Amino acid sequence: MSRKSDSKKPTDAELAILGVIWDLGSATVREVHEVLSAESETGQTTVLKLMQIMVEKGLLNKDASVRPQVFSAAIPREKTQKQMLGHLLDGAFSGSPGNLVLQALSMRESSPEELAQIRKMLDELEGGAS
After folding, report:
1. Where exactly are the structural domains of the chain?
2. Who's near 47: CB < 8 A, 6+ residues apart?
3. Quick one: residue 95, left, alpha or beta (phi over 0 = left, psi -120 to 50 = alpha)?
4. Cα gap 65→129, rounded to integer Å
5. Which of 14, 28, 50, 72 is 20 to 30 A from 8 (CA-CA)?
6. In 10 A of CB 60, how many CB atoms?
């Protein structure tokens, strides 16, 4: 994978920021900082710097026409998840979705709702393969 495409892949800290923004829709640096600082000790200037880098990387959009500046995600959560999962699937699981799913399911207990969704998806996949 090229360095340029790797630079678009969010780091763990960037994913935490994206998570806040995806949940809120858009946010100021202060709003992101307030959410993140409830979970870990993070400085507001650190959050600001990371968000500026994320704008440069194309992960966030910045509306500089308002004060304070408002940031929004440049890429939807689902698309980012698919990109990261594809990278993980190819790198760690030799392209085998079955191995990835089995490992994921063995790591944590799934709720009955999640299991029902998984069963439904498997049924749909099997129906489409016939």
Report:
1. 3-73, 93-129
2. 17, 29, 32, 33, 36
3. left
4. 51
5. 28
6. 24
Nearest to 54 by CA among 82, 38, 74: 74
- Per residue in 87-98, pLDDT (tens digit) is 999 999 999 999
Rounded CA separation 124/105 (Å) = 19
3-state secondary structure of 94: coil
Largest CA distance in the chain: 56
Residue bearing tokens 């780091």: 11
Q: What digits encode the pLDDT tens for the residues 15-57?
A: 999 999 999 999 999 999 999 999 888 899 999 999 999 999 9
